[in-house]
Amino acid sequence: MSGPSVDAGKLVVVRVQHEDFDVGAEIAALTQGRPAIGGVTSFLGLVRDIHGDARVGAMTLEHFPGMTERELARISDEAHARWPLEATLIVHRVGRLEPGDRIVLCAAASAHRQAAFDACAFLIDFLKTRAPFWKLEATDGGERWVEARASDDAAAARWQGPETRS
Amino acid sequence: MRILWFAWFRTRVGAAEEAVTLPAEIRDVRGLVDWLRTRSPGHAAALADDAAIRVAVNQTYVKFDHPVTDGDEVALFPPVTGG
Predict the structure, then answer these.
(1) What are the beta bridge partners of residue A61?
(2) Which of A32, A94, A125, A150 could lock A155 by a disulfide, CB 3.0 to 4.6 Å apart?
């Protein structure tokens, strides 16, 4: 776990936790006392009840403690380097989750909307391809590890330019 | 050297963590992966497909040509599926 860190006035919040989170409270805390922020975009990920042709009863999120937080911080730093952001947030849950449960929240705050929209999409696209989390689904056909999707790689690749670290 | 396994690599190997003594001739991740495959059928099954292997040395992603030494912590895992 790592709390907020401030670098030259920019706020980076990264958390990995078992417990649920309150989206409104998270965004309120992110923007509190930062009047330069003109807009916040957020992405909230939920557990779906259907994956492919299987009904999902629950899933268990495994991660790599330590590296996960470091990788989420690297992704956040990369977003701050690319866009004029005031604050970013990534909260990701681990452990057992059921359909409908909140699983991840990404948010980006900036003076203007376009940087916030783009940075938020970047955060979730890179999280999906780089942050060391794995989903074990309990379906009506038994337990199975979720396979990585090529479409997620393609989503992350659209952000890659010559300046991107690999 | 400390080896960490995650997700279905962990279940195939049958351990979350192993302490190994790195043979002197192994210098990089490629050599380490090839050597780990020989440790058991479970290891070989976990590491069957190069394209499905992600490697982090001391919690940072590296490629197969990255050097390794006995003091490193090396994590091996399949492509990530969070979010």
Answers:
(1) A95, A135
(2) A125
pLDDT digits (tens, 9 = 90+) for A127-156: 999 999 999 999 988 999 999 988 898 999
Q: Delineate the domains of chain A, giving CATH numbers in brackets.
A: 5-156 (3.90.1170.40)
Mutate to test the interface with B, among A14, A42, A59, A62 (most CBs of B within 10 A): A62
CATH class of B2-77: alpha beta
pLDDT tens digits for range B36-81: 999 999 999 999 999 999 999 999 999 999 999 999 999 999 999 9
Q: Do A131 and B59 touch (CB under 8 A)?
A: no
Q: Do B82 and A136 touch (CB under 8 A)?
A: no
Q: E-assigned strands of chain B?
A: 2-5, 17-19, 54-57, 60-62, 73-77
Determine, for residues B82 and A148 on separate chains, whether the beta-carbon distance falls below 8 Å. no
What ipTM was estimated for this complex? 0.95
* Ramachandran quadrant class, B31 (left: phi over 0; alpha: psi -120 to 50; beta: rest): alpha
